[in-house]
Specification:
Fatty_acid_hydroxylase, binds zinc ion
Length: 307
């Protein structure tokens, strides 16, 4: 029985097909908005919250990950877009994309399917709600902003650690197979990397739910989708004049992460540029030049002082 409604909307239905349930919810639950009606229909139709949450997470992951990769795959095939390709000399071949697709699908089914199926009981124990209506949009906007900042911090430090000796050699090296990334390569990684970096995406919302006692599963689902889109886009290999970082200077985007794949060192953060800026780990020849001139100026200043 679903916890979305106090009373089931299926009792009156002889034919509980998805279409009929959707029709019934849209007719009877007029106080809900469009997204809430769809959400409620899904849980009412499934009549099993564990399966409903598990399938929802799995499908959202597959649909939004591959759905977001598809436009990048098409753009790679259209020469018009080459002028915005960051590493112009490298266009991924069909073989590379196919190998990457197979590896990512394998990882999704082998690694990510288990946490997805155990997620609803965890949500229940933490008091993560699946009920309708959803919390106010302003509450969810604040949660998404907070999760972006916390994930970025986690990603910076975990990723920096992954570039250290054995962690790089045995785990992170797989993700660096492509020196010029493409969308699909976002989740091309060793299972240990998928788990540890994934912890930054899911772990903070869990901690937030534990500490505050109020988080809605819809808010969490949208956050995961936003993070998926961010990860795919940062691996796209394209920097357009309309790319977000041109309007929001602290947003990392593809230009930031492409340099990481190209030079192997620096630009460890995921969504924002501030960690690499503060800790002087920006990648690329320009950042290196700036770093050297800063160090030279500092040394000269020190030499003058001691004269
Ligand atoms: Zn790396
Ligand atoms: Zn990467």
């Amino acid at each position: 029985m679903t916890e979305v409604f106090n009373q089931t909307v299926l009792e009156v239905l002889e034919d509980p097909s998805l279409i009929k349930v959707v029709e019934n919810v849209f007719k009877s639950q007029t106080q809900l908005n469009f997204a809430e009606k769809l959400w409620a229909s899904w849980y009412a139709y499934m009549q099993n919250d564990i399966l409903a949450t598990g399938l929802l997470f799995f499908l959202a992951h597959e649909v939004f990950y591959f759905g977001r990769c598809l436009p990048w795959f098409i753009i790679d095939k259209i020469p018009y877009f080459r002028k915005w390709k960051i590493q112009q000399s490298y266009i991924p071949t069909n073989k590379e994309q196919w190998e990457c697709l197979k590896a990512v699908l394998k990882s999704h089914f082998l690694v990510e399917v288990f946490p997805i199926w155990t997620f609803h009981p965890l949500c229940k124990s933490l008091g993560i709600s699946v009920a309708v209506p959803f919390p106010p949009l302003t509450t969810m906007l604040k949660e998404w902003a907070l999760f972006f900042v916390l994930e970025d911090m986690w990603h910076y430090w975990a990723h920096r650690l992954f570039h250290y000796g054995p962690f790089y050699k045995y785990v992170h090296k797989q993700h660096h197979k492509y020196a010029a990334p493409f969308g699909l390569a976002a989740e091309y990684a060793h299972p240990l990397e998928v788990i540890s970096l994934g912890a930054g995406t899911v772990g903070f919302p869990i901690l937030y739910a534990y500490l505050t006692g109020h988080l809605h599963l819809f808010s969490l689902t949208i956050w995961i989708i936003l993070r998926l889109v961010q990860a795919v886009d940062s691996h796209s290999g394209y920097d357009f004049p309309w790319s977000l970082h041109n309007f929001v200077p602290f947003w990392a985007g593809a230009e930031h992460h492409d340099l990481h794949h190209h030079y192997f060192i620096g630009n460890y953060a995921s969504s924002f540029r501030f960690w690499d800026y503060w800790l002087d780990t920006e990648a690329g020849p320009e950042a290196k030049k700036e770093r050297e001139s800063r160090r030279r100026a500092k040394a000269e200043k020190l030499a003058k002082k001691t004269q």
